[in-house]
Every structure is written in structure tokens, then in C-alpha cells.
Amino acid sequence: MGIIKAICVSSKKGTAKQTASSATLVVDHGIEGDAHAGKWHRQVSLLSWQAIEAFKARGAIVTHGCFGENLVVDGIDFAALPVGTRLSCNTVLLEVSQIGKECHNHCQIYHTMGDCIMPRQGVFARVLKGGLVRPGDVMDVLPAATDCPEGTAP
What we know:
It holds the Pfam family MOSC. By secondary structure, the chain is mainly beta.
């Protein structure tokens, strides 16, 4: 179980995301109004609050959204979850579709710190069921659909 600490969105790709007080997640699209939403496998990006805090302890000056993450969650080690894991929050159901990402041109954080955590710690998910999420909402980790006993899939 985890707690959403921040929601971040941007209307344009290639810019840092800004915090928002809530987000509407749309089935097979992503976060309404976010530039990275669309009909593909990286509809929502998630990063653990612990990973961000550990990076800040190394001297990084970052705020929520600097890594391009949509949801910052306290208490879930996303990088340890296998692809297919499902995440539930209110009526929203996400399915982890990718762990990390290749950093082709190295972001500003990498150029400043010599490292960036998103390629190793960030995960991406598809939206299976939509709804509204806010900071403070509880997120639960569910097994992948193929791991659910017959008749118990979320």
C-alpha cells in the first residue's frame, strides 16, 4: 500500500510537470490534460517518493514533476514490481507496462548530477479503469491479471 504524495502534469512535452490538486485518469489514454497521455503503453508515469528523497539526499535540488513523473507515491517500490502488476486507487486501475526508460539525450538533472533516477526507478502504466485521484489517496498493489485466481481478477 502507498499514499499519493503528488500529482504532476504538463500540457507540453519536454517541459517539467507542475503539481496539480487532482487528476482525472481516462481509460486507455492517461491523465486528462497531460501531454504524454494517449493511446500507447506509457499513459501514466509513476515514481516512488522514497527514490526522490534518496536522490535529494545526494544533493539534487528537485521538486515534484522534475523527472516527468505523473504520480509520486510514498510506500511503493515501483522498480521492484514486474510488468503486468496492477495498481488500484479509488476507482482507478492501472497496469504496469514498462519499468524505467532509456534516456536518449540525458535530461537537465543528469547534466547537473551526473545521474537521473527515472530510467531505473520510474515505471509506466496503462489506464484500465478511470477515475479521480488526489494527493493523500491510498494506492494498492495487486497481482498481474494472470496471477489472479479464477474469478477474482479486479
